[in-house]
Design a protein that fits this description.
Layout lengths: L1 H25 L1 H8 L5 H13 L5 H10 L9 H48 L1
Helix pairs in contact: 2-3, 2-4, 3-4
Keywords: Membrane, Transmembrane, Transmembrane helix
Protein name: DUF3302 domain-containing protein
InterPro entries: UCP028770
Length: 126
């Protein structure tokens, strides 16, 4: 008799833990959005409740939606674009410097070549 009541109590306990566990899991995207100060955190919270009633079908999308936003960089693309523009500017500058150095090297080689020819001719005459 005691084991019957113990099994019933255990069954109720497991059902309550699962029930509250699922509710806690559905709230994770909202907690992420709240921590990141997401501008749509209320919408994410309501969509989480809708997802709870649709067996968490929307939940992965809510997770992605919540994690895309960062307060310091917005949706995550602006900073990358700014860095790419800066790198492109630096690359263009370096290419111009390389072309300048190559032209100077070519000019130095041309100046040295007549010297080598005159030295070779003078050695050959002696």
């Amino acid at each position: 008799m005691f084991l019957d009541y113990f099994a019933l109590g255990l069954l109720i306990f497991v059902a309550l833990v699962l029930f509250y566990g699922i509710i806690a899991i559905h709230d994770i995207p909202y907690e992420i959005a709240k921590e990141r100060e997401h501008p749509h955190q209320d919408a994410i919270h309501y969509a989480g409740w809708v997802s709870l009633f649709t067996l968490h079908a929307l939940w992965p999308f809510l997770w992605i939606w919540a994690t895309l936003w960062r307060k310091e960089r917005g949706w995550g693309f602006k900073q990358v674009h700014d860095e790419q523009v800066l790198l492109q500017t630096q690359l263009t500058k370096m290419e111009m410097q390389l072309q300048l150095l190559q032209s100077e090297l070519t000019a130095l080689k041309q100046q040295r070549q007549p010297m080598n020819n005159s030295n070779n001719n003078s050695e050959g005459n002696q």
